[in-house]
Design a protein that fits this description.
With about 220 residues, the protein is an alpha+beta fold. The chain has helices spanning about 10-25, 40-45, 50, 180, 200-215; strands spanning about 60-75, 80-95, 105-115, 125-135, 140-150, 155-165, 170-175, 190-195.
Length: about 220
């Protein structure tokens, strides 16, 4: 079983997320700047240059933004709680206006640390290069299926089957194919919370699914 680990204040969350966003979308995978940045969460969501990663949705495009915290306890191979996972996730989802028949372009990044419950074996993981294969939405659960690159102790693991779910706009789960990660993350998804889903995110995800279903 996974449990949500919470506790950072809103101010600390905004400052730390500003730093990790600059790192995650800046293309520098060798240095994670965790310094105290004074940018607020709303400023981060509206800063297109920070979120772009060498791409522009173009004129008339909807630019969805979402971000939040990773806070989860992962099991060991015996199914017992063994690891704390704590970090940040960010999503950009772009859709050309009026184009509701094809999948949007989804950029997902996450950096999080894992440490054993006794405080030992601390290490870091990064999720990048998410390639969307399908998206579904029930109104309460939005699922993004695809592949991603994950950093593990033996290097980069590419093309890992990945499923990201947003539950009731408040919780996120990230699941990796355990056969591609050596079962490192246990037998449950990684859990986190959402700090912000902007209006364009809701328009793209819920509006797209409604039009595709013909309802």
């Amino acid at each position: 079983m996974s449990y949500l680990v919470l506790g950072l204040t809103a101010t600390a969350t905004a400052a730390l997320l500003a730093s990790i966003m600059s790192f995650a979308f800046g293309g520098n995978t060798s240095n994670a700047a965790y310094g105290a940045d004074q940018m607020s969460g709303n400023q981060m969501m509206s800063n297109n240059s920070t979120m772009s990663e060498n791409s522009n949705p173009g004129s008339g495009a909807l630019a969805g933004r979402a971000w939040g915290l990773i806070g989860s306890i992962q099991n060991d191979n015996s199914g017992n709680p063994a690891w704390i996972a704590n970090g940040y996730w960010l999503m950009r989802i772009d859709q050309q206006s009026g184009n509701s028949t094809s999948n949007p372009v989804v950029l997902f990044r996450s950096t999080f640390e894992m440490v054993k419950l006794d405080g030992t074996s601390q290490h870091k993981h990064m999720i990048s290069d998410f390639q969307l294969s399908s998206i579904s939405d029930t109104g309460n659960v939005t699922t993004f299926n695809g592949t991603a690159t994950i950093t593990l102790s033996d290097g980069l693991h590419t093309g890992v089957q990945t499923s990201i779910k947003v539950l009731n706009h408040n919780v996120i789960t990230i699941w990796f194919d355990p056969s591609a990660t050596g079962g490192h993350f246990g037998n449950t998804p990684i859990y986190g919370t959402t700090a912000k889903l902007n209006d364009a995110y809701h328009t793209i995800v819920h509006g797209k699914m409604k039009m595709m279903s013909g309802s």
